[in-house]
């Protein structure tokens, strides 16, 4: 599923300058019905709007590195089938030290009302971790820990990459972060979230 996290994160390593945020406007894309009946809104495809305003939940910098919007993450968020079912909006962000292997890729998701349950949150984490780690066999561990008063779910990949997931229920936000490197930028990012 969300193998985009690793691809985006590793692609960010080669970036030297952040791109300007895309000027997207909310749009609802529908598919015309194939017969005379009206389409069921629950069956209609939905678009995930890229909303750079969601970046305000993230710190502007971590460990002296700027946290910037990720156009690659934005593009992937709009086409991820599982995300379309959960989200009204999303934005990708990245912090990377081009001189080392340290990076963090974050996906901030504005959830549809009541779209996420404990069960679907667990499914999301498992699927994200498998996609990021390269398959279920490459996921070598799961853990939980408190970070800044929130429960963070952690996945560990065989190659050292870690994933972090936080559901901020009061704001209908979901954050999934992929992090690589000894500085643990993912943990630093989550420790400095804006309330």
Topology:
Blueprint: H1 4-13, E1 49-50, E2 61-62, E3 65-66, E4 68-69, H2 71-79, H3 81-86, E5 87-96, E6 103-111, H4 118-133, E7 139-147, E8 150-157, E9 162-168, E10 173-180, H5 185-191
Parallel strand pairs: 1-5
Antiparallel strand pairs: 2-3, 4-5, 5-6, 6-10, 7-8, 8-9, 9-10
3D architecture notes:
With 195 residues, this protein is an alpha+beta fold. The chain contains five helices and ten strands; from the N terminus they run H-E-E-E-E-H-H-E-E-H-E-E-E-E-H. The protein has helices at residues 4-13, 71-79, 81-86, 118-133, 185-191; strands at 49-50, 61-62, 65-66, 68-69, 87-96, 103-111, 139-147, 150-157, 162-168, 173-180. The strands form two sheets. Strands 1, 4, 5, 6, 7, 8, 9 and 10 form an eight-stranded mixed beta sheet that branches. A two-stranded antiparallel sheet has the order 2-3. The two termini are 29 Å apart. The model is unreliable at 1-44 (pLDDT under 50).
């Amino acid at each position: 599923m969300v193998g985009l996290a690793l691809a985006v994160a590793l692609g960010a390593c080669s970036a030297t300058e952040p791109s300007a945020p895309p000027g997207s406007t909310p749009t609802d894309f529908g598919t015309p019905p194939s017969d005379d009946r009206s389409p069921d809104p629950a069956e209609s495809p939905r678009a995930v709007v890229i909303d750079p305003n969601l970046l305000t939940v993230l710190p502007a910098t971590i460990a002296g590195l700027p946290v910037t919007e990720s156009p690659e993450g934005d593009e992937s968020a709009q086409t991820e089938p599982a995300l379309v079912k959960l989200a009204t909006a999303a934005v990708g962000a990245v912090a990377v030290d081009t001189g080392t292997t340290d990076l963090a890729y974050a996906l901030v998701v504005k959830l549809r009302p009541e779209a996420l349950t404990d069960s679907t949150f667990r499914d999301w984490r498992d699927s994200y971790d498998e996609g990021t780690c390269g398959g279920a066999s490459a996921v070598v561990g799961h853990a939980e820990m408190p970070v800044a008063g929130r429960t963070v779910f952690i996945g560990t990949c065989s190659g050292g990459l870690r994933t972090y997931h936080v559901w901020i229920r009061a704001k209908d936000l979901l954050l999934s972060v992929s992090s690589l490197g000894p500085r643990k930028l993912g943990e630093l990012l989550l420790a400095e979230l804006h309330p």
